[in-house]
Design goal:
Layout (H helix, E strand, L loop, with lengths): L3 H23 L4 H5 L9 H19 L10 H4 L15 H21 L8 E5 L5 E5 H25 L20
Antiparallel strand pairs: 1-2
């Protein structure tokens, strides 16, 4: 049976796997297709991919305040805090892809460092509107990964509308088989 930390590590693996697929698809498109307003929540493919990086940066910076003081989060501690959820961090897919690889490496290493005990902590943070919240860390980590899945689904739809197949996107592809008794 998988523990909560095993689930988090699986989600980090899924996160990287899916981001690799999306950026591989993005690299096949001309720049004007990536920035075209597709009437999506974050306008374009590049806007959606930027939002994912913004959200991940915000959450990782919040997670860096956990008393466990995760050394794996050191690379994000000095990143500027995005001001808006729709803030374009990068205007080109190659630069954004480089940043994405950094974030995914940090997420993977951080996921390996989390202990079961860490997950029971109540984390205090402030939203982008300054609203303070005190929430269960495990639930926040689950939200972190769910948020990524939600917006990657939007991005994969935008790719599909352009005739670009990103391939299998189901987490099921990464869930290991378990022995039955």
């Amino acid at each position: 049976m998988m523990s909560r930390t095993d689930h988090i590590r699986l989600m980090a693996k899924y996160n990287k796997w899916m981001n690799d697929k999306l950026y591989e698809a993005a690299m096949t498109l001309p720049g004007e297709e990536l920035i075209a307003d597709r009437k999506a929540f974050f306008s374009s493919i590049l806007g959606t991919l930027n939002h994912l990086a913004v959200g991940d940066t915000m959450w990782l910076k919040r997670f860096a305040t956990h008393p466990a003081n995760y050394s794996a989060l050191e690379p994000v501690r000095n990143l500027p805090i995005p001001e808006r959820l729709d803030q374009p961090l990068y205007s080109d897919v190659q630069s954004l892809s480089n940043h994405r690889r950094l974030l995914d490496q940090v997420i993977t290493e951080w996921a390996r460092s989390i202990t079961d005990h860490d997950l029971d902590h109540v984390l205090r943070y402030a939203s982008t509107k300054g609203i303070v919240a005190d929430k269960n860390f495990f639930c926040l980590v689950m939200h972190f990964f769910n948020h990524q899945t939600h917006h990657r689904g939007q991005a994969s739809t935008l790719f599909s509308q352009l005739g670009v197949d990103v391939g299998v996107t189901d987490l099921l592809a990464l869930i290991p088989n378990e022995a039955t008794v």
